[in-house]
Amino acid sequence: MDRLVSYACWRPQTIDVDCVSINLPCPENVFTLDEPFKTPTLTTLPYPCEATRFGLSPYFITALEIWSQATYIQILGGLRHVSRVASTSVGAFDQLSTRLEAFNNSMPGSMQWSTPNRRAFRHIHQEGLFIHLHLTLLNTACIVNQESLPYPAEGRDAHRQGLLSDESNGTGTDQERSVTACVRASTEIVAILQEARNSDLQATNQLQSVVSAFAMLSAANVQLWIQYVQSRDRNAPQHAEARVESIIAMLESWKMTWPVAEDWLNTIRLLRRLYEATYAPISGSSDGQHLNNVADPPAQAADDAQDRPVARLIEGNGLPDFKERLVDKLRFTLLSSLEDMDARKRVLKPSMTTGRDQVELPASEIDEFEYWVPESYDFGLPDLYLSNTWPGLESGHLYAPDAV
């Protein structure tokens, strides 16, 4: 719960696994038969994985712990944070990639993703855990590699060469390997979602979770990159667009019973809007349509406001400089999926209005944003917080502790 809340709310983690001793869950049959069992910890869990002996829960928690380390690097500033604090040539993302690969290689064939394996775990009432284990592993693969995706300064913002363009981290084979791993992981996330949704109602219901939603957002971001940036395969953009639409359709199906799904839908729409504003040609109909689809937060009822008063999100020590790297804007949009919509829309405005001298934007797009962002500020990402700030956020920058 601590890790999920930290990522969902863009706040610091409060439990350090190095400072606590927690045993992992026992297999369910141990409780049923009341047999003695010595439970392992994160450091003593044996590998290769033994699902028949320990069940899936310990391995899911281990996967979630690896995921939480990757997401915390995102919260602290991504690869910029890694380059700032790394004392060796091997960065934190590289270490997590190695650990993730070792974890995947330790899983026997019975724990690898496949339709027969998913059905087999259904018989022991662990189908949902099996699905979420693989979504978590694939989501981690997306996170540790997605900032290596190249974002060339092309399209309508080409005149901002060096400002919007994201310097690729790593060169040659290393970068190619990261891009391939990221694209493969995002595609497999969508494949798992589609298989579970198309199988039966029981599998579909297993998907409705925060873990699934985070994986869907990561996959959507990478697929949007394929659609708008990658140009090697002529058919890749069409396939990527179809995958994004399948994610949107699943989140749409959750809205009636899970209102937070609307915030995640808006996140995907904002991500798409950023890519469109940066790389796609101007189209008054399509661009405006995507922007208008971003819903404003629902009005809070008076009774609810009295029962549960919530401070309105404000900006901290100054407005940010939106001549940042696109990857930073994308990371901000993903991390702020539950934040105030007005604050999130400010990220889009400069991307839309930069280059006004080259392209005349439709008035409907410009009027959508009420806020003027001065160009004199040189802060990083927005310092967004409620009334209780924390030391990690200062002047709009993310500062890391001594160690992650």
Salient structural properties:
transcription; metal-binding; two-stranded antiparallel ribbon; globular; mainly alpha; 404 residues
In brief:
Helix content is 55%, strand content 2%. The chain is mainly α. α4 (57-76) runs parallel beside α8 (127-146), α8 crosses α11 and α13 runs antiparallel to α16.
Account of the protein in words:
The chain is mainly alpha-helical. It has a domain at 15-151 and 164-208. The chain is built from 18 helices and four strands. The protein has helices at residues 2-9, 28-33, 51-54, 57-76, 79-85, 92-106, 115-123, 127-146, 172-199, 201-207, 210-228, 236-254, 261-279, 284-292, 302-307, 326-335, 341-353, 363-367, and strands at 314-315, 384-385, 393-394, 397-398. Strands 1-2 form a two-stranded antiparallel ribbon. A two-stranded antiparallel ribbon has the order 3-4. α9 (172-199) packs across α12 (236-254). The longest helix has 28 residues, at 172-199. The chain starts with a helix and ends in a 6-residue tail after the last strand. Mean pLDDT is 70; it is low at 154-170, 281-292, 295-322 and 354-404.
